[in-house]
Amino acid sequence: MTDWQQRIRNLAATGWAFLCHLARRYHADGCQTRAAALTYVTLFAVVPLLTLTFAAFSLVPSLGEAGAKIQQLLLDALVPAGNPEVTDYLFDFARRARSLSTAGGLVLVVTTLFMLRTIERTLTISGASRTIGAVRPTSCAIGPC
């Protein structure tokens, strides 16, 4: 057997070993279950997050046109295209959230932070134990990291 044939054989064996390791880790980490849970939690986290964002923009009337553009950018990024019903529900929920008491608003903020924390933990599938505070996931969800 020539040298290049041996190299190809070693490369194929290494590639096969990597694919087997990848499949074992995929099943051991429960990636399929995590993906389903992440989808479910994300759907519930988007509504309070957008509500808080819209409420924050409405509290600063000087933003005016810029606030409307940012809201539209968020809607384009997070809401399925061509679905005005979802947008109407989000704006209705945001309008109702503005009339919440201080305690209700605090519960909404805490709920949003807990959901973002759950999403962050679910995405950490590499077994890393390092945790980050509530500010970073919130800033990453609302704007650039």
Detail the topology: elements first, then pairings:
Blueprint: H1 3-28, H2 31-59, H3 65-78, H4 84-98, H5 102-123, H6 135-142
Helix pairs in contact: 2-3, 2-4, 2-5
> The biggest beta sheet, please?
none
Number of domains: 1
N/C terminus separation: 53 Å
Residue windows where pLDDT falls under 50 for at least 5 positions: none
Shape: elongated
Strand proportion: under 5%
The level of helicity is over 70%
**Estimated radius of gyration:** 22 Å
Order of helices and strands: HHHHHH
Q: DSSP helix count?
A: 6
Tally of strands: 0
Computed structural class: mainly alpha
Overview of the molecule:
- This protein is mainly alpha-helical and 145 residues long.
- The protein has one domain.
- Helices cover 79% and strands 0% of the residues.
- The protein has helices spanning 3-28, 31-59, 65-78, 84-98, 102-123, 135-142.
- It is elongated.
- The model has no long low-confidence stretch (mean pLDDT 76).
